[in-house]
């Protein structure tokens, strides 16, 4: 279930934009009329009906984005992010829905905690937000949460994100019970005895700089384990933030064999390699770590061919003073909601490495499908969940203050091309530049 | 008689020299290394005089900020500064505000308020010197950061090799031991590549990092044709039961310990200290005529004098060092 605050439903006409909805097979210059938050008409030279008219000439109108992996730091670290600030960042990034991870303090492992989050979201969320609940109590990896009750209370999915489910036996039990809740499991795949607190991909850069290495195989053995269990129990699993070529290969094999495995990839794993760590900048420290060029290439291939269905930011805000520390002492994670489309458009779409339509699908319908959310569509009768994109807009990250409460972006100072000009979420205008 | 004419530019104070750091061997060029070693030789001859103090850095303030225990490095930096007549301030993490949880950035800002010319820092975490360089206006010297770099150690080792073997280019050095956890090894690999020394890394498989860009082998026999065997310190915490880098310390010593029997006649031996006698190095080797270990310690003083002098007065330590400092 998704929650958001009450907003006036939009009456709008967006004129002359290139309407691009790969899932609906639409790519044409059209006017779009929205009546009371619902798409009422698509066509040429639509009458305004007294609605506000927005000139979309030269812009792209697409289904708004869905981010399946965000950390809102609430409850517990509201100094880093709140539901209000995180969803405002999402609105500015072109998102109409985001899903928040349960590794908060306290962990979202009871219906009571989930209920209080839902209540806050109904009061202050700028865009609809859903919550994942933990697989195990306190994410301790020992006992299952009351997944049935949590599902009834509106948990979108279950995840111990941030830590892996170490025990294969417990993972199996969670998969068995998922058939009761009907909610997917979203898995952080990391074999802790191989990652061993590594800060950086085990490769040439870690060897040169002296960092403890987290090898690719530390991720891929857990991917293989979880896909094998999913196959055995015939349950779907969603693999969070894949980083290694071996993990992609395992997923591809499993999908070909009929396993219901889905996966997501972050913008930073699609754009950067461990070479970026040479800067010693703690804003390129994340888990899983940035890996080698062959890993990056494999992730991009998989995103292109649909083996990886979703782009997820893994938006992970951190307090400035905690990131302003030597690399090893700084926490893992970077922000991403406000830059995801712009960086992927700049670095992948513009150079011709990824078709725009594919990117739009993987940022919207792809993740929505995985998590059972109605995919945003540009179609008559659909709720208006739209983003109007100005692909020519050039901007420098950090020049304008972030809507997020945190500034730990790996793109600070970077010049990007492309930005949302307007975001409509659940029928309401939530962002306008 | 010509009247003194003032040019417009004469009235302008001279531009301050660009701030330079010694953060990593990777920032140095071969020219930098040769200049620094040359300066160190000059200082070595000055130390033969009865009055050993030089006025070169009079009035300069050098802060030694040590977050890890150290004998050789901290004492030689302090003595190097004093031999050059600089004022020194020694700050250790224990007994300072670090004990009270002060962050590295805040400690750097505090010490920076005294306008030090140089901050020498040793810290258990990679990149701490870069952070200090960003937070203060001082020249920063990395005296060891985690498992990353120890550039003055590599420079003093090059100095020792050149003095004792008469050349650098074409030498073959075998570096033996726990390469994975050694900042000395990382600096040496880069320094050796810079001056044309062939380097072979020898140690247990789990203690040799993959992809370090040097010859690696677990066969101790590979030290046979090296001119110099450079023994790394075996850190006892890495050898605790359960760490399993090697099955036991005993097995390490049996397979990779440097004994007289494993050395060829005339082969020289080096060690960055502190030694674990009887573990990575047999005491008979440490005390033999072929051991250069005390020479390394002496070299530490003159090389650190050269580094301080070079940063504050000499030619550029390297264009790349500048660039690295600016992006850092």
Poorly predicted runs of 5 or more residues of chain A: none
Strand percentage of chain B lies at 5-15%
Mean pLDDT of chain B: 89
Q: Name the CATH superfamily classification of the domain at 64-336 in chain A.
A: Metal-dependent hydrolases
Using the CA coordinates, give the radius of gyration of chain A: 21 Å
So how many helices of chain A? 14
Under the CATH scheme, which class of the domain at 64-336 in chain A? Alpha Beta
Q: How many distinct beta strands of chain B?
A: 9
Q: Would you state the CATH class of the largest domain in chain B? A: Alpha Beta
Query: Strand arrangement, largest sheet of chain B?
Result: 7-6-5-8-9
Number of contiguous helices of chain B: 10
| End-to-end distance of chain A | 29 Å
Describe the biggest sheet of chain B? Answer: 5 strands, parallel
Summarize the structure.
The complex is a heterodimer of chains A (433) and B (328). Chain A is α/β, with parallel strands linked by helices.
């Amino acid at each position: 279930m998704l929650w958001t605050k009450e907003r006036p439903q939009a009456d709008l006409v967006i004129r002359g934009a290139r309407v691009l909805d790969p899932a609906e097979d639409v790519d044409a210059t059209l006017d779009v009329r929205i009546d009371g938050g619902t798409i009422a008409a698509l066509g040429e030279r639509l009458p305004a009906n007294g609605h506000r008219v927005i000139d979309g000439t030269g812009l792209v109108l697409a289904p708004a984005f869905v981010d399946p992996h965000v950390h809102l730091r609430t409850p517990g670290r509201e100094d880093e992010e709140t539901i209000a600030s995180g969803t405002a960042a999402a609105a500015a990034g072109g998102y109409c829905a985001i899903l928040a991870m349960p590794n908060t303090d306290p962990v979202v492992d009871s219906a009571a905690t989930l209920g209080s989050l839902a209540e806050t979201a109904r009061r202050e969320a700028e865009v609809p937000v859903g919550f994942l609940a933990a697989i195990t109590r306190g994410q301790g990896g020992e006992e299952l949460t009351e997944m049935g009750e949590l599902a009834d209370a509106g948990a979108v999915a279950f995840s111990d994100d941030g830590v892996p489910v170490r025990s294969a036996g417990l993972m199996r039990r969670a998969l068995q019970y998922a058939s009761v809740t009907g909610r997917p499991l979203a898995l952080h795949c990391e074999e802790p005895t191989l990652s061993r607190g590594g800060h950086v991909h085990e490769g040439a850069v870690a060897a040169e700089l002296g960092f403890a290495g987290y090898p690719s195989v530390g991720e891929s053995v857990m991917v293989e384990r979880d896909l094998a269990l999913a196959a055995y129990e015939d349950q779907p699993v969603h693999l969070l933030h894949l980083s290694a070529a071996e993990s992609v290969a395992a997923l591809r094999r499993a999908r070909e064999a009929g396993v219901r495995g889905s996966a997501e990839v972050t913008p930073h794993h699609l754009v950067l390699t461990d070479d970026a760590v040479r800067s010693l900048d703690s804003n390129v420290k994340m888990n899983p770590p940035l890996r080698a060029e062959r890993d990056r290439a494999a992730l991009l291939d998989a995103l292109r061919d649909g083996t990886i269905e979703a782009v997820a930011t893994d938006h992970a805000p951190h307090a400035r003073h905690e990131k302003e520390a030597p690399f090893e002492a700084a926490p893992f994670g970077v922000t991403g909601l406000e830059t995801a489309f712009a960086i992927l458009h700049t670095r992948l779409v513009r150079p011709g490495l990824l078709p725009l339509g594919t990117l739009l699908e993987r940022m919207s319908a792809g993740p929505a499908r995985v998590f059972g959310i109605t995919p945003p569509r540009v179609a008559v009768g659909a709720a208006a969940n739209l983003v109007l994109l100005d692909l020519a807009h050039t901007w420098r990250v950090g020049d304008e203050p972030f809507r997020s409460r945190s500034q730990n972006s790996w793109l600070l100072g970077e010049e990007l091309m492309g930005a949302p000009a307007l975001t409509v979420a659940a029928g309401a205008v939530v962002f306008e530049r | 008689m010509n009247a003194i004419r003032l040019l417009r530019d004469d009235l302008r104070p001279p531009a301050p020299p660009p701030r330079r750091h010694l953060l990593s061997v990777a920032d140095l060029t071969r020219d930098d290394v040769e200049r620094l070693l040359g300066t160190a030789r000059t200082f070595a001859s000055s130390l033969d005089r009865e009055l050993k103090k030089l006025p070169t850095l009079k009035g300069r303030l050098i802060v030694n900020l040590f977050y890890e225990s150290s004998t050789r490095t901290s004492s030689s930096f302090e003595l190097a500064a004093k031999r050059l007549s600089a004022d020194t301030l020694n700050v250790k993490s224990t007994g300072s505000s670090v004990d009270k949880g002060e962050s590295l950035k805040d400690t750097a800002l505090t010490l920076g308020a005294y306008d030090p010319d140089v901050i020498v820092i040793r810290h258990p975490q990679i990149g701490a010197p870069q952070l200090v360089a960003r937070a203060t206006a001082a020249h920063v010297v990395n005296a060891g950061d985690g498992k990353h770099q120890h550039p003055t150690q590599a420079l003093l080792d090059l100095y020792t090799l050149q003095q004792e073997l008469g050349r650098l280019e074409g030498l073959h050095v075998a570096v033996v031991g726990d390469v994975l956890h050694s900042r000395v090894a990382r600096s040496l690999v880069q320094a050796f590549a810079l001056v044309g020394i062939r380097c072979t890394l020898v140690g247990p498989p789990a203690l040799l990092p993959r992809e370090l860009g040097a010859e690696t082998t677990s066969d101790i026999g590979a030290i046979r044709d090296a001119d110099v065997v450079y023994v790394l310190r075996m850190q006892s915490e890495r050898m605790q039961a359960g760490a399993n880098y090697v099955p036991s310390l005993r097995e390490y010593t049996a397979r990779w310990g440097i004994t007289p029997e494993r050395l060829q006649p005339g082969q020289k031996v080096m060690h960055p200290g502190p030694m674990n006698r009887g573990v990575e190095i047999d005491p008979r080797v440490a005390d033999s005529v072929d051991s250069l270990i005390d020479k390394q310690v002496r070299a530490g003083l003159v090389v650190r004098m050269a580094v301080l002098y070079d940063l504050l007065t000499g030619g550029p330590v390297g264009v790349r060092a500048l660039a690295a400092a600016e992006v850092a």
